[in-house]
Structures are given as structure tokens and as C-alpha cells.
Amino acid sequence: MRNRSEFMTPTEILGRLEQAIVDGEITVGDRLPSERTLAEQFSVSRPVIREALRGLAERGLISVHPGRGSFVREESGDDLAAPLTRLARRAGATPRNIVTARTAIECTAVETAAELRSPERLAELERALAAHEAAETTESRAQTDYDFHATIVAAAENPVLAMMYQAIYPFTQGMMLRSQDDADVRHAGEPQHALIVDAIRAGDADRARELMRRHITLALDLYGADIDKSLEDVLGGRGRLHLPVD
Fold it and tell me: What pLDDT, on a 0 to 100 scale, did the predictor assign at position 76?
């Protein structure tokens, strides 16, 4: 029988379970053993197991359903959004910073999408473009605008790019809302969507990349002084960006 000094800590148990999930021993959708079973397996009390499971949930590795148990969940870029928004707030990130980040992600993605030219992805992109063109309110135009760009990123078939793009969703969505409120930005940017789709359909990666670069960097010329203000000042104050409270 173990003495008290040999008992595993919640952090050690969390590490063991996390490693099992990362290694694929426990896969997405699997139900973890019950607290009682895990307590017996690790020779600890149930409160220790409960603390370890809480840590897994905070890391976005599991979802806990009262009465049903704990299940391994699929990770996504959304898991990065909250901590990233906190860091951006502390760093005083600006719309210019987001434009630079989007240019790096989306120009690479659209170039790859044009090279792959997947029929399935092209069909998805056509539907996303049609949905955006049919949107009537500022909120729906901003959401379908984001969906259109996210569809292009997905068409690159690169899960890391997709997660990076999802992670900056609060900033991108906030800027799209601000752009949809600005007639000059909207009128300059909207026609470029169809041109980008045409370039992807034609497999012209260089043209697709250049069109995307011009499209995203419109904000540099048309946002005025807002481009170098903090995101919190430009978007948060207008209810377009919900920054977590430290």
C-alpha cells in the first residue's frame, strides 16, 4: 500500500490524461472513465480526480456533462480566441496589426486554394459568396463576410492555418462590422470578392494572392486614424469586440 507521499497530484494525473488524449489512446468523442474508476486507477481520492478533470476542461480537452460524464472534445481555433484577446488588449494591438496578420494567413490560404482548386471547396465558396451577396443587415453582411473568408482558408486544406484564422475571429469579425458600417470601405471591398473567386476557379494563384492582399489592406487606406488606435478603442467601444475582463 502506498504511503501519502507517493500519492499522485492533480497536476500529475492531468498530465497523464492529457498525454493519453494527445497520443490518441483516448479519442475525440470518447467518454472518460468515471471519477470512481479513475480514483481507483490512480489510487487517489475523487476530489483529486475532480480537480484534474477541471484542469482538462479548462484546457479545452474535455467537456463535462452532468449526469453523463466527461467526453474528449475536438480542439479548435476558438479555444485560442479568449486568451489571445486578453493578450491583444494588454499589448494594445491595433487594426493595422490585424490587417498584417490576416494578410499573412489569407494570402497564403487563397494561393493554396487556387493551386488545389478542389471542386467541393469551389462549390462551398460559391455558396458562401451567394450568401454574402444576399445579406441585407450590417450584422448579417459581417457574418457572411467572415464565413466567405473562412471558407477560403478552409479550401487551403491546412488545419493550422484554419486554427490560426479561427483564433483571431473576435478581431476579424469586429473589423468586418466596422467596415460594413463604412460606405467607402464596403463599396471598395465588396466587388473584389467575386474577382477572388474567379481567380481561384481559374487556378491563378498569383492573381488570387494579389487580389486578396489588395482586399485586406483596403483598411490601411480607408480606416483613417482608426488604423493605429487600440482595438479596444476602435471596436470595443462600439460594441463590436467583446474583450475579456482580466
Answer: 63
